[in-house]
Design a protein that fits this description.
By secondary structure, the chain is an alpha/beta fold. The chain is built from 14 helices and 19 strands. The longest helix is centred in the first third of the chain and has 27 residues. The protein is globular, with a radius of gyration of 23 Å. The structure holds 5'-deoxyadenosine and iron/sulfur cluster.
Amino acid sequence: MNLSVNANSILDEQLGYAKRVLSLAPTVYGNNPKACVITFGCQQNVSDSERLKGMLYEMGYTIVDETENADFIIFNTCAVREHAEDRVFGNIGTTKKIKKERPNTIIAVCGCMVQQKHIAEKIRKSYPYVDFVLGTHVEHRLPEFIYKRLNGGGRVFELSMEDNTIIEDLPTRRDGKFKGWLPIMYGCNNFCTYCIVPYVRGRERSREPEKIIAEFKQMIKDGYKDITLLGQNVNSYGKGEAHGVNFAKLLRMLNDIEGEFVIRFMTSHPKDCTIELLDTIKECKKVSRHLHLPFQSGSSRILALMNRYYNREKYLELIKNAKERIPDVDLTSDIIVGFPGETYEDFKETLSLVNEVKFASLFTFIYSKRKGTPAAEMPDNISRAEKGKWFSELLLAQEKVAENNIQKFLGKTYRVLCDSHSEKEGYMSGHTNGTAVVEFKADASMLGCFVNIKIESYDNGFIGKII
Ligand code: 5AD
Ligand code: SF4
């Protein structure tokens, strides 16, 4: 079967349903309907929600921020840690009252969390007022599900992951005006032992380079100046695909597009971060000077248990290569504290790595047991309270590193995208092409422009001036 022909017909079918909802919904609700999309979790989810909003807009819905007056409410959920799941259940619970007052309101839950069987079952039994539960591979069929429900259809639990077809050209409503997300691949093949993502998002699949380039060019035309390429592991973009374009090549192709803009990307797996990629970043001036390289643990013993395919030495060698090639690079990372079997000695290796590398910032997490992952079966003897103490120690170490990092920015001039109003009267705020945020005196008319900013001081954030 020709996959792109299949994808086109799926898209056409859904756009057909969207048109039908457009004329049917006002007769059900008595006026133009409103939709509220509530997003949990990572940037991939934020990006998926922008596609959901795009489809809802095509169906005639006005997008609102509050659930109160919405005729359609969808929760786009995250499964990476238990805490996120608890929050989602709390939120779904609040819709019971809405459904009682306005029975025509449609309540939907989609995303990674519901792709787990036990969660879908819990919703089926304990949350009877939820109308749709949609897995990660069927979200593009939203128009069809809404149409059928408005026509009197029953509850929908659609969780099939069989069809891996990427549906291109779905309508999109982006949240930002200058900074935007652009997914280049979906799924993950790595099976880190703590992580639920490969089970709920399925195997890795990359978009065609032509499709990415076309969407990128359209975003530039629409005024976007800072675009982040998204994937669970962008460094393995194109692996196993006939087009032969790897991530480094894709970056070069995007860098060649005319105009002034910044290309960012996340997330990178250290095992796939090649010298070719580092050289590409160095040579491509529009590619951001930021590498997010999650190391998770500084202990080689724990890294092996995590199935990460690198050890402490290899990671440090990669960091050395990155710093040598791209001296102005900002490094960030993810860390898990309290993985099953981790001892204080292992944790101290994480601390020492943090002190050695001097990351610009860190995303730190206490290990959360995920049902169905190999780590969930590993013995875990350290108490939550003890893990909490280690976690605080890590935060303190990073605070000191960050304090020392400030010095390297002072007195330097950066090209900055002026992307928002600052809370300070008469000031605007912007991002460098790394991770720094700087505030500077500027007129609101500078919004969306690049300016040269000299960073002069630090007061809970960088302050600079236009030069
Ligand atoms: N527990 C805690 N943190 C986790 N992450 C992924 N799975 C878990 C888990 N079970 C973290 C990793 C990953 C980031 C997105 O979330 O650090 O890089
Ligand atoms: Fe999870 Fe590892 Fe895949 Fe990242 S690379 S999504 S941590 S399995």
